[in-house]
Amino acid sequence: MVSGRLHRCRALWSLALICLLALLATGPVAFAADAAPDLGPTMRFGIVRSNAPGCEPICPEWISAEGSIEAGTPALFKRMLKTLGGRKLPVVVDSPGGNVEAALTLGRLIRKNKLDIAIGKTVFSSCQPGAQGCQDRDARYFGDVIDYGAMCNSACPLMFVGGIRRVAGEWAYLGVHQITTTYIRTKLQYRTTYRIVGGKKKILNTKIVSRKNAGSYKTYEMSKSVEKKLAAYLKQMGIEQGMLETMKGTPASEIHQIALDDMLAMKLVTSTDAVGLLTAASLCEPGRLATNCREMPGDKPDGLTATAAKPTPLAIEPEAARRDEERRDEDMRFVVVRGTNPLCNPDCPEWISAEGAITPQTPQKLRQLLATLGKRQLPVVVSSRGGDLFSALAAGRLIHEKKLDVAVGRTDFVGCDPGAWNCLAKEGAYAGLSIDAGVECDSACALMLAGGIKRLVGPQARLSLYLMGQKQTVKAYLDEMAIGPALFAAIERRSVERRLEPGMMLKVGLTTSLQSVDALTGATICEAVPRPQNCRIRPSANAEADAPAKL
To answer: 539 preceded by cis ω (within 30°)?
Structure first.
């Protein structure tokens, strides 16, 4: 009897009990979440090949990223990156914003994969991502890019800062504002089953049996936890905290467009070039292919998506071109070179080869090399995509102080490349030839060129220039270099980087003649009277060995 009653009692206390509880859950943090339906289509990604005339079969390619950023956007981006097989294509983004967490994830993915990014719109020539029956067999679309009217607003700048090179031109629009956080009230109905053992409640399991939306509310100020998270992210990406302060100081109902000068000061952009800096057809000329030039697709079975198709011989860079591409991306290197043309032996001209990106170390490297030359004045042959503005000004001042001539050109080394560990200078110089066909001197490089006494940019070379956010600094520098106000006025009207035509450069005083680099390094210049200072000096029999000139 007793045991039976205990059993029934035990069974009674084992009945399932139902409890109701209303919980508050924080939803995804998003910019202007209440306006989400007006943000337009979800971001779509597509691999686009330039339709510029004359660039086939090696046209440049890029990743088009257009639309609002939503929670599932990073997964779509990851999926697309897998199809590239490790290729590094620049991202061209046009987005009104969206989900903050997703934007942070996209930014980290872009940085992890070492991709460049620019604000721009892709103008598709036939069809675009998402259109039924549009996609190529090799998963590429065709089009062009513009930056007029392109935007990167709200959460988009958090994606944008992940880029290695970050490009925003004069006509692009980048804006930020406060975060809108949505808190969602959810009514949960759950069942808890428990048993009384020894007078104490022992929970066996808890299971949610229903979930109902109980309304929501929003806050329009950044919480301390979100602020701390964003500050850490921006610091990781190398961005000044002024961007975060601008976000906090702008109401969620407004957009604060950040001026180009402020973007540079915040390190939000690395260049205020037009989007064409990353997508122009000129990047893919035979012999000097950029990393995003088209890979020729191989034969694939029907129905397979193109991955990293093996290029045909037309798209394979020769070893010399590959080394040249690497030199342009590395820190600027200064090397004393002696011409190897048989017409000039034994009195061949010498010059200083200056190739690579301009960095804070560049002026010191140049100063060290010049110290090894004593009073000799060798011309500088420069090839560079640009770099740090203030370092370029310092290098230009050093060139001006030493009264050196400068020409845009590239050195093709004969026998070995100075970057190789076993490549040694003979009698203080490396052997090489100078050329200027297709050579570029962009952005800060043009200001370094301005320091020269003679300044030469041949008709086959390319020079582009724009104001990099430091108008008064650049104006004062050009005055110091005795270059008239016409150049400053010309580039002030062109705050987006543009190639300067030879006649225009001569007219405004940036160049001193229309001659090419051969005027300073050609095989026959040492026959002239008086003999140029950079013609080879043959060492005497008792001369000490020259120090290798490589920095």
So the answer is: no
Give the strand order in the sheet containing 180-197.
Answer: 17-30, 180-197, 200-219
The phi, psi pair for 69, rounded to 5°, reads: -90, 120
Contact between 34 and 180 under an 8 Å Cβ cutoff? The reply is yes
pLDDT tens profile 23-70: 444 444 444 333 344 567 899 999 999 988 778 888 899 999 999 999
Place of tokens 């989900």: 99
Q: Is 305 inside a domain boundary?
A: no
User: What tokens does 434 get?
Assistant: 């100078």
Q: In terms of pTM, does the model score above 0.85?
A: no
510 falls within a domain: yes
Same domain, yes or no: 406 and 259: no
Domain that holds residue 395: 318-527
Contacts of 521 (CB under 8 A, 6+ apart): 339, 349, 351, 379, 381, 407, 409, 434, 534
Angle made by CA atoms 367, 370, 371, in degrees to the nearest 5: 85
CB 256 within 8 A of CB 270: no
Distance CA 74, CA 70 (A): 8
Kindly state whether residues 269 and 414 are assigned to the same domain. Answer: no
d(CA 31, CA 35): 9
Q: Is residue 190 located within the same domain as residue 124?
A: no
Q: In CATH, what number is assigned to the domain containing residue 139?
A: 3.90.226.10
Same domain flag for 356 and 462: yes
H or E element, residue 465: strand 462-465
In terms of residues, how long is the chain? 551
pLDDT at 321: 43
Buried b (16+ CB within 10 A) or exposed e, 466-498: bbbbbeeebbebbeebebeeebbebbeeebbbb
Select from 400, 404, 431 the least CA-distant residue to 415: 431
Distance CA 327, CA 439 (A): 13
The answer on 21 and 127 residing in a single domain is: no
Classify residue 543: in a domain, yes or no: no
Instruction: Give the number of domains in the chain.
Output: 3
**Closest C-alpha to 42, from 62, 67, 17:** 67
| 526 has pLDDT over 80 | yes
Q: How far apart are the first and last CA of the chain?
A: 100
Yes or no: say if 384 and 353 are a contact pair by the CB < 8 Å rule: no
Residue pair 113/83 in contact (Cβ under 8 Å)? The answer is: no
Q: Say if residue 464 is in the same domain as residue 418.
A: yes
Q: What is the pLDDT of residues 432-474, one digit of tens each?
A: 889 888 888 988 999 999 999 999 998 888 888 876 667 888 8
Residues 61, 161, single domain; the answer is yes
Whether 411 and 337 share a structural domain: yes
Report if residue 130 sits inside a domain: yes
Pairing between strand 180-197 and 17-30? antiparallel
Q: Are 382 and 406 in contact (CB under 8 A)?
A: yes
